[in-house]
Amino acid sequence: MSLVALLKDSAKIKFQTWAPQKWNLRLGLVPGPSCIRLEILMLLVIFVPSMYCHLGSIYYSFYEIIIPKRLTVQGGDIPVEGLSYLLLMQGQKHLVHLKVKRNHFVNNFPVYSYHNGLLGQESPFISHDCHYEGYIEGVSGSFVSVNICAGLRGILIKEEKSYSSEPMDSSRRFEHVLYTMAHQARVSCGVTSRDSHVVSTSWQQGSRKPHDLQALSYLWSHKKYVEMFVVVNNQRFQMWGSNVNETVQTVVDVIALANSFTKRNKHRVVLAGMEIWTNFNHWRQEMLFHRAKHDVAHMIVGHHPGQNMGQAFLSGACSSGFVAAVESFHHEDALLFAALMAHELGHNLGIQHDHSACFCKDKHFCLMHENITKESGFSNCSSDYYYQFLREHKGACLFNKPWPRGRKRRDSACGNGVVEDTEQCDCGSACHLDPCCDATCTLKENVECSHGLCCLGCTFRRKGFLCRPTQDDCDLPEYCDGSSAECPADSYKQDGTLYDRIHYCSGGQCKNPDNQCVNIYGYPARSAPEDCYISINTRGDRFGNCGRPTEDQQTYVICSGDNVFCGKLICTGVQSLPRVKAQHTVIQVPHDNDWCWSMDAHNITDIPDDGDVRVGTSCAPNKVCMDHSCVHHSILLYDCRTEESCHGKGVCNNLRHCHCEFGFAPPDCKNPGNGGSVDSGPPGMQVTNNNESGIEGSAQAPPAPQAPPPEAPPKEPAPKEEAGKRQEKLKEKNEG
């Protein structure tokens, strides 16, 4: 039952206090157990008990009937890009200014539902010109987000109070209900010993700086798009009156609100499709994955789960099996739910909970704090976590623009800041300051471009300019082609490429246990000697194992043979403890004149934490770690024969094309040239990039960054001792 319907039954009452629980918005709407732990999803390993959340009761203390008055200018209506309304709120007149907010759903996105066991599909038409966002004139910190296509439905925030506007269907006078929330509701999430996936403690502190400013510029200058598929369970569907249209429209409204929270990190949430169903996780892997292209999949459930309000797989976006999240929407506070959705999406994008050193402008709590409020945004720490996620090539799917994707867009809207079908550029509302683009979204005279990594001063950067440098030894550079403003798609060495004689590339990253230890404990930490791995990983407990307990095996897996190097990461040479979140534990075991260190986050999901040796790490001659086992490196599916394909003068990239050394030309590195590949763009002459601000430079890839530099390095680094000896033995055996 909606609030408006409730008011129709109590029209004589002007002031009331009630909670949504009294509107029959509870478990009793559908048959089944009254357990409030989202048990179906727990069985599917999506709602694991690693994050406990609680939502305080939401009470509405006051409501009033208002008639919004749309203002017009002399000669007609205000243009559709901007609107203004006059509202009489609690006896005071307020002027609300709004601007259209587009592109938060894909045109004709599919909506699936089941009727008598048969799958049906609809493609609802929803206007891109319904959602507006703005502020209340003269009220600092105010915020307004409304849908104007069916009255004025949405939320307003004024002086830290939240209001919700909803049109009265039976009114002939454009009457609306404006109700006030009695107190600031919030979702409170407490990270316990069964915490979500552990990240590098260096990033937890928010102090890690990227090694290359050009790489940082690339990752942040490109807008990211998160294509989200939303599943609505049957109970929440019934709470929306079993009405498909209302369900779809409400989800679209929530997505629009969620985008208000994601602005800081420069990614846009785009609704890619919906389904109304009653099951989720394995179904997602087996059916949804092939049904609709998406980067993440979120399920909305309708019951009050008690402690658990939301859960997401950390860093799961763009992966094939861990892109899911679940949120409970048992109340009617759309803005608070949008904040929860943005919070769980943050976890999908690798963002951990905030700690005491994190901050966001003018807010007590940030979006990724354990206490989620409706007036929060991403913190500085969230930006660091997100950058790390992108830097590790985990967010590759976010850089593709989801439209038109085989569908013609209904129209393009000049002035929204997004370059669309028929536009050459789009300078938004600041065209008078843009030297390249005019107000008609057309490039100015004698202008080649307006934006992009290969655009500088309204002209294309020269052919061969290094637009994306390498991140490490397993990455490859990209260059401008001189005729486009865009840098070529990111490429890297093929999985299984050998480097430093014993290590392998995987996912564009160098899988070196020494570097992994440095990332966690800082310089000069390094991978421990063999004795430490044997001593700890044969214990079969939290801190030393080759696999967690499962339904079939109730105990930790004891490592045996070479598998000891594929269990927990064991480090030595640790000079100072990193800042570790509550309930995250490290242990140390004495070894000769040093200590062996291991860590565990008590994470019971299927995603390995940073305390585990990473997949693809060398564990024995010609072997790598995979699922806590030491197996032959052929599992990485490396099939490049550089001597034949690249004439011994290059390496294969992730697309199995030759990336040639300087002096040889693609595609086969046989003829003279400047190097590169058919995917990287053409390198220029071998000179040096002078700076990032625009001096034309080279095409030569800079040397790959080494292990992160120490904050205060000793003059002479500690020797590697037994760990170094073990690596030398591996090199000798590999070469033999």
From TrEMBL:
Q: Where in the cell is it found?
A: Membrane
Disulphide bonds annotated for this chain are 467-487, 660-669
Q: Where is the composition biased (Pro residues)?
A: 702-712
Residue positions binding Zn(2+) = 343, 347, 353
Composition-biased stretches (Basic and acidic residues): 713-736
EGF-like domain residues are 636-670
SUPFAM superfamilies according to UniProt: Blood coagulation inhibitor (disintegrin) (SSF57552), Metalloproteases ('zincins'), catalytic domain (SSF55486)
What keyword terms does UniProt attach to this protein?
Answer: Disulfide bond, EGF-like domain, Glycoprotein, Membrane, Metal-binding, Transmembrane, Transmembrane helix, Zinc
> InterPro entries under this entry?
ADAM_Cys-rich, Disintegrin_dom, Disintegrin_dom_sf, EGF, MetalloPept_cat_dom_sf, Peptidase_M12B, Peptidase_M12B_N, Reprolysin_adamalysin
Chief location category: membrane
Pfam families assigned: ADAM_CR, Disintegrin, Pep_M12B_propep, Reprolysin
Bilayer topology term:
Single-pass type I membrane protein
Disintegrin domain spans which residues?
411-495
Query: Which residue positions are annotated as catalytic?
Result: 344
Entry's transmembrane regions: none
The molecular function terms in GO held by this entry are:
metal ion binding; metalloendopeptidase activity
- The region called Disordered is annotated at 674-736
Q: Which residues form the Peptidase M12B domain?
A: 224-402
Q: Which GO terms describe its cellular component?
A: membrane
Q: Name one GO biological process term.
A: proteolysis
CDD domains according to UniProt: ZnMc_adamalysin_II_like (cd04269)
Under the heading PANTHER family, the entry gives: ADAM A DISINTEGRIN AND METALLOPROTEASE DOMAIN (PTHR11905), DISINTEGRIN AND METALLOPROTEINASE DOMAIN-CONTAINING PROTEIN 1A (PTHR11905:SF120)
Q: What is this protein called?
A: Disintegrin and metalloproteinase domain-containing protein 1a-like
Identify the species of origin.
Pan troglodytes (Chimpanzee)
